[in-house]
Design brief:
The structure is a homodimer of 170-residue chains. The first copy, chain A, has 170 residues and is mainly α. In chain A, 57% of the residues lie in helices and 8% in strands. The structure holds a DNA duplex (30 and 30 nucleotides).
Chain lengths: 170, 170
Amino acid sequence: MIVRRDAGTPAGSDEPGWLDQEEAHAWVALAGVLVALPAALDAQLQRDAGISHFEYQVLAMLSMEPDRTLRMTRLAALASGSLTRLSRVVDRLDKRGWVCRQPDPTDGRSTLAVLTDAGWEKVVDPAPGHVAEVRRLIFDQLTRGQVRQLHDIGKRVLRAMGTEGLVPPT
Amino acid sequence: MIVRRDAGTPAGSDEPGWLDQEEAHAWVALAGVLVALPAALDAQLQRDAGISHFEYQVLAMLSMEPDRTLRMTRLAALASGSLTRLSRVVDRLDKRGWVCRQPDPTDGRSTLAVLTDAGWEKVVDPAPGHVAEVRRLIFDQLTRGQVRQLHDIGKRVLRAMGTEGLVPPT
DNA sequence: GTCATTAACTTGACACGGCAAGTAATAAGG
DNA sequence: CCTTATTACTTGCCGTGTCAAGTTAATGAC
C-alpha cells in the first residue's frame, strides 16, 4: 500500500479513491499489526513448545472434541487451513507422536485424526503461556471500551470479506 | 489459541491467566482478521497485477524515493522483510524487468535496487484498485470514531511488541 | 602496511504450502 | 447392477522463504 510521505491530503478531503490522514494513520498501524502480531505469537509458541501456530491450532481443535477426534476436512476448516496443508501437518504431528490417523468406520473415504496422550500434553502445556502472551500484547494494552470496539471492528471487517462464519456449527 | 466452547467464564471473572468473554470474542474476531485480511489483499493484488503483496511493497517503496533507488538493507527494512527474502524477490523483479541492480559507487559492498520505467508503471497501475480494496474492506465498514480507535489500538499493540518504529527516518 | 573484524549482500540446502493430478470409496442415474 | 459423478484425501512438483555459510569490500588495531 502506498501512503504518501509528503504533506499530502488536506484534512477534510474525502475523495473516494484515496485515504485521508486519519485513515492512512489507522492503516499504517493496522498493517504493522498484521505483520508483527502473527510473527510474535508464532515466535512465542516456537520458543516455548517448538511448534508452529498452525500446528498448535490443529492440536487445540482436536483437544476440544470430546473424543479428541476429527475428520480431516472438518479439522482443516476449524484450523483455517487448506486440506493439503493439514495433510502435511498431520504427517509431521504423526511422526512426532502427537496425533495418529485412523480409518473412519462409517465412511471409507475419510480419515480421522486422533490426538494422542502425548499430543494432549503438547497442547495443554503451552496454553497458559500462549494466553499470557495474547493478554500481554493486546488486552493489557486496551481499555474495556477498546476491547468492545475491537470486537465490533473485527466483526465488521470479517463481514465485508464474507469470512465471518468460517467455523461451521457441526 | 484455545477459546472454550462451553459455557465457560462467568462475566465478571478476571483471573489473570485467562480471557473473559468480551476478550475472547474480541480475540476470535481479531484472529479471523489476522488470517483473512492479508489473504484478501494478496489475492486482489495477485488477480489484478500478478504480483504478491511483498513484491508490491518493494516496488512501492522504491517508487517513493526521489531517484527510485534504495540500498538493499534499507529496502528490506522498509518493506518489512528479511534481507535474504528481498534478495530473492529482487532477482525475480529483475528478471521481469521491473527493477535492476547497480553497484553502489560510494560503497563497494552494497547493492542499489533501482526501479525501471516498467516497474514504475507496475506500481502506479494497480494502486487505485488496491486502495479501493482497503477502503472497501475496512474503512467503508467503520465509523469515524472507530477509525480513530483502530489507530489507537494498533499503536498500543505495536508499542507492546516493541515494533512501533519499524521504519527508520533516514 | 597488514591482519582481524565487521558489514552487506548472495547462495545452497532444506522446510513448507499450493496446485493439479491421482486414488479410493460412496452416491446417483438409468 | 453397472456406469458415472462426487467426495475425501494424498502426493509429485514447483515456487517461495529461512538459516547458515560463503564472498567481497570497508574499517580498526597495531
